[in-house]
Amino acid sequence: MAAVQATQDSWRTFGASVTGKAHLDKEIPCQDAHAHAVVNGVLVAIVCDGAGSARLSEQGAQFVATQTVQALAGRLEQGATVQDLHDGALAGTLAQIRTALDDIARAANATLDDHAATVVGVVMGQDTGFFFHLGDGLGVAQLLDGGELISLPANGEYANETYFISGERWREQLRLLPIPRSVRGVVLMSDGCMPFAMSKNNTALYAPFMDAVQGYLRTVDSIELGNEALASTLADPRTHQITGDDKTLLLALRA
Predict the structure, then answer these.
(1) To 5 degrees, how large is the angle CA 231–CA 119–CA 222?
(2) Do 45 and 36 meet the contact criterion of CB atoms below 8 Å apart?
(3) What's residue 26's pLDDT?
(4) Beta bridge partner(s), residue 187
(5) Nearest alpha carbon to residue 119 among 73, 185, 51, 168
(6) Are 208 and 122 in contact (CB under 8 A)?
(7) What pLDDT sits at residue 60?
(8) Which residues in the chain land under pLDDT 70?
(9) Which of 101, 85, 104 is nearest to 48 (CA)?
(10) Are 226 and 214 spatial neighbours (Cβ–Cβ below 8 Å)?
(11) Nearest CA among 131, 136, 192 for reference residue 163
């Protein structure tokens, strides 16, 4: 998991990306990626899912995830606020990363669409924050009162169509969802996890699965052990009966 050194350890953040059965069978690498950072108590986290139809999507997902977190963390270190990021700095950062990815693609005799990836991320301060979302995947803010605020996936006209940062209309497809209150945790996931981590119709986290996972992670001795256990859970062959997709789950828990 890509991470940036925290300047204030107010979160315990765990994450894992594992290759789905469909890609294992074809010896295709995992096309999901995730990254996170904590700067002065502000959490920045992201999950990216590379398009299955794009030949370099695993590189696109990794680049967008890592570079977005590093850039947003840098802005926070330079004095930007959560509100600053919401009000334009986030979109500006994504535009710069998209341009940089286009430059990399051209140098490799490839296209931006060859690196297509979705984006679901969060910026969360002490009392307020927001999700940022392009395409599918899902984010859940676990509120202190037990409620959940959910950033749902957005798809195109067809069930198997979604939006990517490589798309020409990415700015109008970028969604920001404010988180107006303090949270006890934030969960980000790629669409491969949704069939077993979310309840029917994506109305809430699926408690039998998520309560067990979070209960363990809240007591585990180290982040490394937690990440290993999370990866093992996502790679369990029993998940292959539910989905053949790559699976990424990132959980940030208030320390």
Answers:
(1) 30
(2) yes
(3) 86
(4) 140, 251
(5) 51
(6) no
(7) 97
(8) 1-9, 156-160
(9) 101
(10) no
(11) 136
Cα dihedral 198, 202, 207, 211 sign: positive
Q: Residue 52's pLDDT is what?
A: 86
pLDDT computed for residue 8 by the predictor: 46
What Rg value do the Cα atoms of the chain yield, rounded?
Answer: 17
Structure tokens given for 22: 């469909």
pLDDT given for residue 156 in this prediction: 64
Token readout for 69 is 């977190």
pLDDT score recorded for residue 159: 59
* DSSP calls for the chain: -EEE--SS--EEEEEEEE--HHHHHTTPPP-EEEEEEEETTEEEEEEEEE-TT-TTHHHHHHHHHHHHHHHHHHHHHTT--HHHIIIIIHHHHHHHHHHHHHHHHHHTT--SGGG-EEEEEEEE-SS-EEEEEESS-EEEEEETTS-EEEE---B-SSTT-B--TTSTTHHHH-EEEEE-S-EEEEEEE-TTTHHHHB-GGGSSB-HHHHHHHHHHHTT-S-HHHHHHHHHHHHH-GGGGGT--S-EEEEEEEE-
Place of tokens 């790679």: 235
Give the Cα separation of 86 and 184 in Å (integer). 21
